[in-house]
Design goal:
D-Amino Acid Oxidase, Chain A, domain 2, alpha/beta, globular, about 25% strand
Length: about 375
């Protein structure tokens, strides 16, 4: 960049890259800072599900935002393929949330009815209908709530494409640049201190996921903690139609002929290691969904760290006391779904000073003591 940046974005996962892409498309000079290799933390460790209906809690404010984010994906995937040549593997083939006992079946029937009453496509599949859709389903499965517009994306291809497009649009990326401190004076971030020196910009966007709270000089504590998720990869069962299935705290996602099996929710600090107990849980629950998975050799295992807030919702918007500091962090399990739309919201706030999206539920000030 010949001139200094207009915006410093701290964190180059999908959320940070989406902010950089949207801001660069709006004509802003963006410098994207990443402590390691871009896109190689939570964004690459995920399974890529787009599941606002399946994962929504009743009455959760993120449901409407998640539906809007999901509905943007077809156009986003087409634009990224056109402009970067990368196919992000978007598919809206539906997700089934499977019940293994009568109480859960009743709960999921009610959830499907509630979503239909809200104008969303959802249906209850009894055992015969579930077996017709997923022939290899486990014998203990009683039925499933189907969200036919939920789906998945190749999250690793997605973050590569968004980063490439941000750079195409003029954003600059500096990898292996750890941000140590925000220097705040008179209600303004006056400098961002990195291991390679200090940087200045009119606007700073914090999108560093579970590393966000580690910055010195934050105007308030950020209640974000790393929650580890373990994943295993095996071959997809021959003859089984591609699918995304949720069960009892586990899921199965078909991608490129492989089965992505996950995931745990472990408070293990910043330790990104798989464990025998974690993998045993994954294989047991994935095997309940599709028993044929138990016979497949394991190709790969890994773990990632989700940035999770106390209420499970992200932190999006301006700091109430530091006007040029914006948050785009704490997305937890929803970073792949909400990342691109979060980028649009941050662009609105920077370029227009406001956004039409209701982001009050995601304000950092909602946490006690913040």
């Amino acid at each position: 960049m010949s001139a200094g940046p207009d915006v410093l974005v701290i964190g180059a996962g999908l959320v940070g890259a989406s902010c950089a892409r949207a801001l660069a498309a709006a004509g802003r000079r963006v410098l994207l800072l990443e402590r390691g290799d871009a896109g190689m933390e939570a964004s690459s460790a995920a399974a890529g599900m787009l599941a606002p209906q399946i994962e929504a809690e009743p009455g959760a404010p993120t449901l409407a935002l998640g539906i809007a984010a999901r509905e943007r994906y077809p156009a986003l995937a087409a634009a990224l393929r056109r402009d970067t040549g990368i196919d992000v593997g978007h598919r809206a083939t539906g997700i089934a949330l499977v019940a293994f006992d009568q109480a859960r079946a009743a709960e999921l029937r009610a959830a499907a009815a509630h979503q239909r009453a809200a104008g969303l496509p959802a249906e209850w599949l009894d055992r015969p209908a579930l077996a017709a859709r997923h022939p290899g389903i486990g014998p203990a499965a009683l039925g499933a709530c189907l969200a036919p517009r939920d789906g998945a994306v190749d999250n690793q291809a997605l973050v590569r494409a968004v980063l490439r497009d941000a750079l195409r649009l003029g954003a600059e990326l500096r990898e292996r640049t750890t941000v140590w401190e925000l220097v705040v004076r008179s209600g303004h971030v006056s400098a961002v201190v990195t291991e390679h020196g200090s940087l200045e910009a009119p606007t700073v966007v914090l999108a560093a996921g579970c590393w966000s709270p580690q910055l010195v000089g934050l105007p308030r504590p950020l209640p974000i903690e790393p929650v580890r998720g373990q994943i295993a990869v095996v071959d997809w069962p021959a003859g089984e139609p591609p699918a995304v299935l949720f069960g009892r705290g586990a899921y199965v996602v078909e991608r490129h002929g492989l089965a992505i099996l996950g995931s745990t929710m472990e408070r293990a600090g910043y330790v990104k290691a798989t464990t025998p107990a974690g993998l045993e849980h994954i294989f047991a629950e994935a095997g309940a969904l599709l028993p044929a998975l138990r016979e497949r050799p394991v190709h790969e295992t890994w773990a990632g760290l989700r940035p999770v807030t106390p209420d499970g919702d992200p932190i999006i918007g301006r700091d109430p006391e530091v006007a040029n500091l914006l948050y785009a962090t704490g997305h937890g399990r929803g970073g792949i779904l909400l990342g691109p739309l979060t980028g649009e919201i941050i662009r609105d706030l920077v370029v227009d000073g406001d956004t039409t999206w209701d982001i009050a539920p995601y304000a950092v000030s909602r946490f006690a003591g913040s």
